[in-house]
Amino acid sequence: MKITKHALIFTATLVLVVFSGCSTPAQTRTIDANAPKIAQSSVENKENLNCDTPITQLDMNLCTAKEAKEANEKLNEVYTKLQEKVKGTPQESRLLEAQNTWLAFRDADCEYSQRRYDGGSIMPMIYALCVVDLTEKRSQQLEEYLE
Hints:
elongated; Substrate Binding Domain Of Dnak, Chain:A, Domain 2
């Protein structure tokens, strides 16, 4: 099996991203904002980024990474509220386990989704769109648990 230099670099980056967000059961696991495979500093430093009508693939990648970051921030807010609600109950550890399992699923599923375009410049956008979709659904699910 031939592994290209880019695939090797991407895999190493993915491993770093995944393992940098690991937590112990006593900690709150938040979502790594760098998950969409684009450095967030690129998103934040890109002047005049028009996400209403992005033109280049880079702009599309950056805009979807920005959307994924926003979806992650919303999920973290809802998760924190739910964690506070179940604190000190048996549900506290169940929630942590469920969230860690869900995060692993989301990351693996989005990795699979983007690999249909292996080596293409669209890969970061596909990954970020997947993250946005699944993360928004998870936020909605956790909000329902709050009710």
